[in-house]
Fold this protein.
Amino acid sequence: MASMASFFGSFFDKPTSVIGIDIGSSAIKVVQIKKKRGHAVLETYGELALGPYAGTEIGRATNLPVEKVIEAVKDILRESKTTTTSCGVALPLSSSLITFMTIPPVSGKQIAEVVALEARKYIPVPLDEVMLDWSPIPREESFVTEDESSQTEKQGSDFLVVAIHNEYLSNYQQIMSGSGLHPSFYEIEIFSSIRVVVDHGVHTDMIIDVGARSTKLYIVERGVLRASHIINKGSQDITLALSKALSIPVAEAENMKTSYGLKGGPEYKEMKEIITVNLDYIFYEANSAILTYQKKYAKNVSKVILTGGGVLLKGFLDLAKISFQTEIVYADPFGKLETPAFLADEFAKAGPEFAVAIGIALRRLSELE
């Protein structure tokens, strides 16, 4: 368990192409890539809404049984014309418990035992019911004096610890088996996003991932996760708020939201106010997370990176720039791949939705080297 969030399945013969799979609450995203002349090349990609499989509207969050998810996975693989079964799979952040802890100074052989012992304080279920993984958090040695380093060694080491319930992982294994896929690993989505949207410099970034059911916040320092938070409000809440306030069907509200966003519509000028109220709540929580980080570590967040389908709402970026006192950018995960130049604009617009799937595919591709 030396590698962060690496819940490994079986390995198969090396393929030439690989797939990254992101099963979200409202849609499934897949990306197939291959290595060519030392570069990761996009072969195909696709997205499939899950609402219809639950008998509800597109854009709505779902809680489908395994059989329905298998049906949806098979459909998206067929529609996107994938040609391989070799893949990696993202697990939602909500399926896991992530915590940070400091353990006493121990030998390498004792780390597993001590981490498991300390984890009991944070994990509300028996440890035999979860898959436990961890990774050491490096300290900034270049900024630590010899006396401080000695004191730190006496205090122990910092670790990032992840736990996923065995039952949840078993469900995903059933989905992959039923879909005819061969995953070599399952990885929590947070690490997939970090891999593809954060440049590993000395700065600190916040990733805001707006999904249908919730919004995830990640603070990443020097490429290492330092904080995470889930806000129980997402793009679906905006649709439902519009439906209720304007007394229109959910499907119509979703269409209006997608068509006009914060730009408003010809019939409903109050759209902007309704949407802004919901986004202000998300931005308030995000700013609170930034403030907490700044107080704890005496460091500033230098950039906010937007991912997830919810950030594609028209006017979202403009409102975010008003709400945060720092640089705001959209994630550009397709920029990590070789893609047709004439589709550059399309990939730039779709990028935030596919960050997790591309991050997964890149990790799977790196395993073939």
Notes: Residues 271-297 form the longest helix (27 residues).
